[in-house]
Amino acid sequence: MDEKMQPFECPACGQEVKPQDVEGEKGMQHATCSSCRTRFARTFAWFKGEWVFGLWRNEETGKVACTYYKTVAGTHAVDCE
Q1: pTM: predicted TM-score of the whole model, two decimal places
Q2: Gap between the Cα atoms of 28 and 57, Å rounded
Q3: CA gyration radius, the chain
Q4: What are the residues whose beta carbons fall under 8 Å from the beta carbon of 49, sequence distance 6 or more?
Q5: Buried b vs exposed e over 16-40: b needs ≥16 C-beta within 10 Å?
Q6: 25-68 pLDDT, tens digit each
Q7: 3-state secondary structure at position 52
Q8: Strand ranges (DSSP E) for the chain?
Q9: How far apart are CA 44 and CA 54, in angstroms?
């Protein structure tokens, strides 16, 4: 599956969250949980022939959706949703 459209588990309620498609070569990508309506966002850019993405973050709290990043080095519990 294309990384820019890969769904992830909502850390708030456990449901699958499907991101909106990206528009352009750089900007913000958004996703909203259809169950609990928690909103997430991440940066993206097309760089040297490949997509580069930031971390999915809760738009309200700014915390990382750690269920999507099970192996992120340096992520602490206080950083996670």
Answers
A1: 0.81
A2: 11
A3: 12
A4: none
A5: ebebeebeeeeeebebbbeeeebeb
A6: 999 999 999 999 999 999 999 999 999 999 899 999 988 887 66
A7: strand
A8: 8-9, 16-17, 26-32, 39-47, 50-53, 57-58
A9: 6
Q: Distance (Å, rounded) from C-alpha 42 to C-alpha 30?
A: 7
Which candidate, 9, 3, 1, places its Cα nearest to that of 64? 9
CA 74/CA 15 separation, integer angstroms: 25
Rounded to whole angstroms, the Cα distance separating 32 from 41 reads 9
Q: Which residue has the tokens 């097309």?
A: 46
Tell which residue, 50, 70, 66, has the closest CA to residue 58.
66
Q: Rounded to whole angstroms, what are the CA distances from 71 to 17, 52, 79?
A: 19, 17, 14
10 Å Cβ neighbour count for 73?
Answer: 5
